[in-house]
């Protein structure tokens, strides 16, 4: 039986419907750290801060959705629950596995992790999750693993052939290792333009993510879906739901 997502893809290259009544907040997190110290970065999130943000969103009435729900909503108009929020993570940090995963399972929140495949298992700097850990997560229904290119270079400065290699090689590695289709891409640091969007479609993706600050339904295209860095979660909530 063909899935709703596969049917939407086969029906032709879709775009965002402009009459959609919902307003979806998409958030992106990076590393989850134990505590703030001199090595902490501005976009890091401690375990306590992560719990506090989730608790605040739930208290406000958030309903957490998957990116596949978001895709079908944006392109076919399928309904979403009230106050929809989609959670994504970037950069494949081991802190996600050690600290975020237990919290997410406890709250039953679906999440997509965007992975730069050239650094899987790296111990340089902050350690990254291994293929074994990614395979483990991919077997849990809550967790979706998608592409963030191979090297995490800003793709807008590359030529077409180099961009396609980044897009295709990452997708191929994830598909081979995890045995699942890879349909979405997050551009490194949210950097993208019309050319990279066209190349993402050509590489076989169906939705791409920037880091513009607006509800998903107001994004310029299905290959430039907006996400708020988690530090702006309250601003994103106001923009989407008030």
The low-pLDDT segments are: none
**Counted beta strands:** 10
Roughly how many Å is the radius of gyration? 17 Å
Give the overall silhouette.
globular
The amount of beta strand, in percent, is: 15-25%
Structure in words:
There is one protein chain. This protein is α/β, with parallel strands linked by helices and 242 residues long. It contains 8 helices and 10 strands.
Short description, anyone?
The protein has 242 residues and is α/β, with parallel strands linked by helices. It contains eight helices and ten strands.
Q: Which helices and strands, and how do they pair?
A:
Blueprint: H1 4-10, E1 25-29, E2 32-33, E3 45-46, H2 47-60, E4 63-65, H3 67-76, E5 84-90, H4 94-107, E6 111-115, H5 131-138, E7 143-147, H6 160-178, E8 184-186, H7 194-202, E9 207-209, E10 228-229, H8 233-241
Parallel strand pairs: 1-5, 1-10, 2-3, 4-5, 5-6, 6-7, 8-9
Helix pairs in contact: 6-7
Structural descriptors:
37% helix, 10 strands, six-stranded parallel beta sheet, two-stranded parallel ribbon, globular, alpha/beta, 242 residues
